[in-house]
Design brief:
Elements lengths: L2 E11 L3 H12 L5 E4 L6 H11 L3 E5 L27 H9 L5 H19 L6 E3 L9 H12 L20 H15 L2 H6 L7 E3 L10 H17 L7 H5 L1 E8 L18 H4 L1 H10 L2 H9 L2 E4 L5
Parallel strand pairs: 1-2, 1-6, 1-7, 2-3, 3-4, 5-6
């Protein structure tokens, strides 16, 4: 029987105390098996303490798009900042990048500063590192990101290419356009990450199941679609997965109790998504017993990047 190792990663750990509490509650309920820390989050130090207290596997959620940089010299007069002195934002970062306005040496400086701060907060280097709002797969950034991972010996990342995404007709067109952009950037990143010896799970899920679109049936369906797609590919004799019959999946999730302003965020206060009911909806869906029992019947073992 095919064995599936599922990493359920709670993103944005450190964003605010209520996010931290929600992610910890999910971990203790066996619904989240791994977390990704925003070191520039307002509750990052608290998150690191919680991870130590409950032995939660933790990696780095590199942030170049929301809030303030952690590198002191970049907090003023940097290409990474807008006129208000904060990062450019999810779409603003992409616009600035496409116009050639971002200095890649500053991107590298900030990424390294975030790795160093992660080490300071947790006492170890991150076993995995991904990008907040998927900035790590963007043109130019992907090269710098890969160099930083290789320099620090960080083996794992996330490549957000989700099988079956194109068939998800419940996703709003504007959001689907953004997701398809992320997918295209991810396809163009595969060779770069491979050249630097960086690895990632066989399958990524999380775009089609985000926020209000999360349901037990959507998660089941996304996992099943992904497994069928991966196992149907003709394996070569040297194919590692074919020999071991183990498929690895990362499910990206954003559970939490809604942020209450002005507490939270990464320097600018909490954003709309963090304050919405969708965070709580994800939390309540992930801890449902029928989801847990589905994992058991399908021989799906929850784990973290350290277990790969």
């Amino acid at each position: 029987m095919l064995q599936v190792k599922l990493i359920v990663t709670g993103d944005d750990f450190g964003y605010c105390p209520r996010r931290n509490q929600g992610i910890v509650d999910c971990f203790l309920a066996g619904a989240v098996s791994n977390v990704s820390l925003l070191v520039n989050g307002s509750a990052a130090a608290d998150a690191a303490k919680l991870a130590r207290r409950y032995n939660i596997p933790i990696g780095l959620h590199a942030n170049l798009s929301e809030g303030s940089p952690v590198c002191e010299v970049l907090k003023t007069n940097s290409s990474l900042l807008n006129q208000d002195g904060f990062f450019h934002g999810k779409m603003g970062f992409r616009t600035a990048l496409s116009k050639g306005l971002l200095n890649m040496s500053e991107v590298k400086q900030e990424l390294k500063a975030q790795v160093e701060l992660f080490h300071e907060l947790t006492g170890h280097l991150p076993p995995h590192m991904d990008g907040h709002q998927h900035v790590h797969v963007l043109p130019e950034v992907r090269h710098v990101f890969a160099e930083v991972l290789e320099e620090y010996g960080i083996k794992y990342t996330r490549v957000p290419i989700e099988p079956g995404l194109h068939n998800c007709d419940w996703i709003a067109p504007s959001l689907m356009d953004f997701y398809l952009g992320v997918e295209e950037d991810s396809f163009n990143t595969v060779d770069v990450f491979t050249r630097h010896g960086i690895r990632w799970p066989d399958i990524y899920i999380g775009l089609s199941t985000m926020g209000k679109n999360m349901s037990v049936s959507n998660i089941w369906s996304a996992i099943d679609t992904a497994i069928v797609e991966v196992t149907s590919k003709a394996p070569s004799p040297t194919d590692q997965m074919a020999q071991s019959r183990t498929v690895t999946i990362e499910l990206m999730v954003h559970p939490g109790y809604p942020s209450v302003p002005p507490v939270g965020g990464c320097g600018e206060g909490p954003d709309d998504f963090s304050q919405s009911w969708e965070r709580l909806h994800e939390l309540q869906t992930l801890i449902k017993p029928e989801l847990q029992s589905h994992y058991k019947t399908r021989n799906i073992q929850l784990c973290s990047f350290k277990d790969l």
